[in-house]
# Entry
Amino acid sequence: MLRKIFSAFRNPAQYKTPFYPIEVRCNRCGETISARVNLHHDLSLLDEPGPGKSAYLSRKTLVGSGRCFQRIEVTLYFNGDRRLVHHEISGGELISHG
Ligand SMILES: [Zn+2]
# Structure
């Protein structure tokens, strides 16, 4: 019990976690689509600071599993600590991340 409480309060070390989870909702059918960004392999280093003083970006194209074939294009901007500082999305909305 005590151990459980302790781990619940512990801040997960995002920096060491290679996968950054995101959830988007399709604008067309409302389906929620989960994806994850591999923080070691999916990030591209920007030549100069991007939106929100970002250092990296990652682009994802997500398609739901249903009959809807809407493509959701997400661009995620991360700072040097690999924290999400800005995002752009078309075809859906970002409903949760990290
Ligand atoms: Zn859809």
